[in-house]
Each structure stands twice: as structure tokens, then as C-alpha cells.
Design brief:
Elements (H helix, E strand, L loop, with lengths): L7 E5 L5 E5 L10 H5 L2 H18 L4 E3 H14 L12 H4 L1 E5 H7 L5 H17 L4 E5 L1 H9 L6 H22 L5 E4 L1
Helix pairs in contact: 2-3, 5-6, 5-7, 6-8, 7-8
Length: 186
């Protein structure tokens, strides 16, 4: 078997084919309104950051095209762009809006709670603006451990988890108003 270059990932297509690509070899095709709103260089840098995340941060060698597209979509959305990959159903179609709390914790300057809670409220607002019936935040346990700087679950983690859940409940009651929306946190 031929060794994979250290700067490459194997991209697995829906048909099962695996294609080795480096960060520079990835090209992103934007269609519809997204193509007019985003600069090509910005998208290129975002895709290279996602590539780095899978290769370096997660230590992955193989990634599916769908995983990569989903991660890139989340990155672009975190910058306020409304994009959707072709194989992902729209939140309005499913009525379910999802977000990974671990991502929010890592984006909160050094995992600091001071920055985390306002950003969490903003994420909830964004999802409520989409008229979602269900807002799902996943990765709570990993998020709490990351914010607490803990490797193992502790009393401090339990306390922080309870504060996050209470904060989300309060924000939902304030922000949702008369909207019929359910909150799911796991």
C-alpha cells in the first residue's frame, strides 16, 4: 500500500471511492445566493481551516465529503453567512435547528465562561429567528469539561452544566415569547 502524504486527507465520496487531497487541492463550488455573497479567498481559507481541524486537531486520515461540507457550513454560519450544503436539508424543512456546544466553547477565547454565555444566547436567538420548532444543542458534556478545564467529570462540571441549562431555559423563555419552540440539550 502506498503511504498517504502527511498533508493529505482521504475524502470518501458517497459512492465509496477515496480520493487523497491536500488543503490546496480542495475546491469549493458555491451555487445560488451564496456564490454572490462570499469571496472566493474567504471560502478557500475557511476550507483550509476545516481541513486542518480534521487532519491536525482530530488526527483523522479519512473524512467523508458530507462531514467536510457540514463542518465548512458550520464555520461559514459562525461568521454570519446563511449557507447550506446541497445534501443537508434546510432547518426550515425539518423544523429542527442544531448546534454543537463544544464548538462554541472552543470559540470562546480560551474556553472562558465570560465569553461563552453571551455567545450561547446569540446562537439561541439565531435559531429562534429561523422559526425552528425544535432547537437542539448537543455536546453539552464535552463543552462543560472544556470550559471547566477538566479531564474528568467533577462537582464543578456538574455545577457548570446546571448553570448552562438554567441559562438556556431563561433565555428561551425571554427570547421565544409566544413562539411554540422546544429546547433539546444533550
Amino acid at each position: 500500500m502506498i503511504a498517504l502524504a502527511s498533508d493529505c486527507l482521504l475524502f470518501q465520496t458517497p459512492g465509496g471511492e477515496q480520493i487523497p487531497l491536500s488543503a490546496e487541492m480542495i475546491s469549493i463550488e458555491l451555487m445560488g445566493n451564496s456564490a454572490r455573497l462570499l469571496e472566493a479567498e474567504f471560502v478557500k481559507q475557511a476550507s483550509q481551516a476545516v481541513f486542518h481541524y480534521f487532519r491536525t486537531e482530530l488526527g483523522r486520515v479519512t473524512v467523508t465529503v458530507a462531514e467536510f461540507a457540514s463542518a465548512l457550513e458550520r464555520v461559514l454560519r459562525s461568521f454570519g453567512y446563511r449557507v447550506r450544503s446541497a445534501d443537508c436539508p434546510d432547518e426550515k424543512e425539518t423544523g429542527v435547528s442544531e448546534f454543537d456546544l463544544r464548538q462554541l466553547a472552543s470559540e470562546s477565547v480560551g474556553g472562558c465562561e465570560l465569553f461563552f454565555f453571551p455567545r450561547l444566547r446569540e446562537q439561541l436567538r439565531r435559531h429562534l429567528e429561523n422559526d425552528s420548532r425544535i432547537v437542539r444543542f448537543h455536546g453539552l458534556r464535552g463543552c462543560v469539561k472544556q470550559l471547566a478545564g477538566a479531564r474528568r467529570w467533577s462537582g464543578r462540571c456538574e455545577s457548570l452544566q446546571n448553570r448552562i441549562l438554567e441559562f438556556l431555559r431563561e433565555c428561551l423563555s425571554i427570547e421565544a415569547g409566544q413562539t411554540d419552540c422546544s429546547l433539546l440539550v444533550d
